[in-house]
């Protein structure tokens, strides 16, 4: 795992997060005036998130631009960040969060969410907590953390993927998706190891942000 | 786009002085990293001062164009991603122009022998996709993008259909590398490699793709004008200093 913040000078906040062979880059612009105007909320700010895969991130070529999958992932990241960022402190404003996946090997939505939350913190937004996100799952009979694409595909029939996002210090889950088949007991275990994985990511995130503010992450 | 320090920079330009202390014909420092993307056949991350771009090359089979059954294809695509700016107007202007100019520079210099990419004439050929993303924009995306795309191409190694399983370099003609040189004109002074502040203020811009003793592509941008003498001086500068960047790129050649 690698985490780094402040990599894009133009943006108010930015971060890069790499977990295994998956890498995401996030930039945060704002808070600024809401555009388009009709999205404005009088009592709180809004987050607009864009998620996209770079064409060379996957074994074949991903077409540039937003498809239905990208839209859905943008939506779940927005939902998670809505809980993490104290939006009620910035009414009538908008925060643009843009996440690009440069290398994909499963678990891109988790890497993207982690990068996005670090970028928000780097931008100095008031936040409840950082989001630490990791995918858990079940391959055959064993419970695993952070599946790779190979694992996901090889055991297609018996693999279950559970992306999770945590606010570690609040013990809250802000992202949870599941596809596959697990029992109640299994899910409990998956969430348990997810929490453990998230705790490690959380430490790394904090370290990267501290480094940035001690001005050491700039190389 | 901001017009910060507009008058100040114009005044300095008359004296041939730049805000960041560079000489008028001095380029910012170039940093190149290759092999940064696992799933691409060749990749490069280029920093030109604070401007950052990421380029990846992919080789995929496809159907040749009907009018050129004996050739593979080259597709250069540039995305001014929302990482670099979230103003839609910024991105639309850059996206189209940078992509087109970079594509022309690579295509017209014939560095890729497209005929060697044919697997079965009229039916299957290999297509070279070069995708370039702006990560941060501090001016002169044109040159940064050109350097990144060329480095990614030079660095690429791919499994080619009909040539066994071994990963081979692309059929490139390395002498022909067309290196982009961008000049900005403020008042009557010409600055090489303008940064963001200068780019916002400049009256005219000239991009020259310098090949091996020849010019492969040119593009004048913005609404100002150049005199023929100025164009000639820029061309001279581009051709004379082309080897600096060329050597830097070829340092990443995969043998």
Short recap of the structure:
The complex is a heterodimer of chains A (219) and B (255). Chain A is α+β, with helices and mostly antiparallel strands and 219 residues long.
Structural commentary:
The complex is a heterodimer of chains A (219) and B (255). With 219 residues, chain A is of the alpha+beta class. Chain A has one domain: Ribosomal Protein S5, domain 2 (2-Layer Sandwich). Helices cover 31% and strands 31% of the residues of chain A. Chain A has 4 helices and 9 strands. Chain A has a 5-stranded mixed beta sheet. The longest helix of chain A is centred in the C-terminal third of the chain and has 30 residues. Chain A is globular. The mean pLDDT of chain A is 90. With 255 residues, chain B is α+β, with helices and mostly antiparallel strands. Chain B has one domain: Ribosomal Protein S5, domain 2 (2-Layer Sandwich), CATH 3.30.230. Chain B is 29% helix and 31% strand. In chain B, strands 1, 2, 3, 4, 5 and 6 form a 6-stranded mixed beta sheet that branches. A 4-stranded antiparallel beta sheet of chain B has the order 10-9-11-12, with helices on both faces. In chain B, α2 crosses α3.
CA-based gyration radius of chain A: 17 Å
Mean pLDDT of chain A: 90
**How many domain units of chain A?**
1
Number of helices of chain B: 5
The number of helical segments of chain A is 4
Q: What would the CATH topology of chain A be?
A: Ribosomal Protein S5, domain 2
Count of separate structural domains of chain B: 1
Largest sheet of chain A: 5 strands, mixed
Q: Give me the CATH architecture of chain B, please.
A: 2-Layer Sandwich
């Amino acid at each position: 795992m690698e985490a780094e913040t402040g990599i894009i000078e133009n943006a108010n906040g930015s971060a890069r997060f790499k977990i295994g062979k998956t890498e995401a880059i996030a930039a945060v612009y704002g808070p600024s005036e809401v555009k388009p105007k009709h999205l404005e909320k009088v009592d709180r700010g809004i987050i607009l998130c864009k998620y996209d895969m770079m064409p060379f991130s996957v074994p074949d070529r991903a077409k540039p631009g937003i498809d239905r999958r990208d839209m859905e992932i943008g939506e779940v990241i927005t939902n998670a960040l809505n809980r993490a960022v104290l939006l009620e402190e910035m009414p009538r404003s908008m925060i643009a969060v843009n996440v690009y996946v440069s290398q994909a090997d499963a678990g891109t939505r988790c890497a993207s969410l982690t990068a996005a939350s670090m970028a928000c913190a780097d931008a100095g937004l008031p936040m409840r907590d950082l989001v630490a996100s990791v995918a858990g799952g079940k391959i055959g009979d064993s419970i695993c953390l952070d599946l790779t694409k190979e694992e996901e595909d090889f055991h297609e029939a018996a693999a279950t993927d559970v992306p999770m996002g945590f606010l570690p210090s609040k013990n809250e889950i802000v992202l949870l998706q599941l596809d596959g088949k697990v029992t109640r007991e299994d899910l409990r275990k998956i969430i348990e190891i997810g929490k453990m994985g998230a705790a490690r990511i959380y430490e790394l995130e904090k370290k990267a942000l501290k480094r940035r503010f001690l001005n050491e992450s700039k190389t | 786009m901001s017009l910060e320090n507009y008058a100040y920079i114009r005044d300095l330009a008359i004296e041939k002085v730049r805000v960041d202390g560079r000489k008028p014909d001095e380029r910012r420092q170039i940093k190149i990293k290759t092999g940064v993307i696992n799933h691409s056949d060749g990749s490069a991350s280029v920093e030109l001062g604070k401007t950052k771009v990421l380029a990846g090359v992919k080789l995929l089979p496809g159907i040749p164009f009907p009018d050129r059954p004996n050739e593979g294809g080259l597709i250069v695509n540039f995305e001014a991603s929302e990482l670099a700016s979230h103003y839609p107007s910024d991105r639309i202007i850059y996206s189209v122009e940078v992509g087109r100019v970079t594509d022309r520079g690579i295509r017209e210099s014939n560095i890729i022998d497209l005929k060697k990419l044919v697997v079965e004439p009229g039916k299957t050929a290999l297509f070279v996709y070069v995708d370039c993303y702006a990560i941060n924009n501090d001016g002169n995306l044109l040159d940064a993008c050109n350097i990144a795309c060329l480095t990614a191409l030079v660095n690429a190694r791919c499994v080619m259909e009909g040539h066994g399983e071994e990963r081979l370099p692309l059929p490139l003609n390395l002498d022909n590398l067309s290196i982009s040189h961008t000049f900005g004109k403020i008042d009557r002074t010409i600055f090489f490699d303008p940064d963001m502040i200068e780019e916002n203020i400049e009256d005219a811009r000239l991009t020259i793709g310098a090949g091996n003793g020849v010019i492969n592509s040119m593009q004048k941008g913005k609404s100002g004008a150049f005199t023929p003498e100025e164009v000639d001086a820029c061309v001279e500068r581009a051709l004379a200093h082309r080897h600096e960047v060329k050597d830097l790129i070829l340092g990443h050649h995969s043998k």
